[in-house]
Amino acid sequence: MNIDQGRIMVFTACILLVVVTISVLTVLGGQDGQPWTIQAFKNSFLQAYAKCDMEIASIFDEKGFSSIMDKKLLRKIIAAQRKYLVPLGPQALPYLIVLSQEGKWWLVKVYPETWDGLTGAIPAISKFQPHEIALKRVSQKSYFTTEEFPEIVEPYLPNPYRVHLMWWLEGEKRTPQWFTHGYAKWLTYRQQGDTKQAQAMYQKLLNIGIAAIPLWVQKLSVEQDSEIRQAI
Questions:
Q1: Between helices 213-222 and 160-192, what is the axis angle to 10°?
Q2: Cα dihedral angle (102, 107, 110, 113), rounded to 10 degrees?
């Protein structure tokens, strides 16, 4: 077992511990505004995931793995996740992130706008979008990391399984720093009249995802500038 595999096993063990802790301590919101016990949510999740997995498996069985990059087939895979998994909301994220570690790429995949912005269940729920950084080539290999998690360095492209697992484990701690830094730069670009940079920075703030919602609400509650309040 290499170092990366060992890290993944440790990360996955941590996630499972988090899931168990949540199961003991938390009561989640359910359908129609009614309380959802942990066991009820687990049952609902397992049923939804089984249906989604069966539908996606039927797509692979029908068309074969080599055909999966076709847009029409990808839309079917995304549609299955939107139908069964995305409605479960943030409560499903720890379970989905654990399952994604088994190589279920469709849970974490994000395609560009040229591919209609098709998005797997995890980023669709979390709204988190990491920002890739190309590093220097080493021994004819290109290496990449992300602004959010520079400790994850991979050849070719950042590993989305590791990135989303790290987001679950560390994102809550790092979100205030990401948001504070980005928000200050956004205000600076606005004051300088640099519309293009301001729009780009605002999008980066949105890409922090649902973890930043409390920080947006806090800024909205104290911001006195009406134009900035409207922009928020």
A1: 20
A2: 150
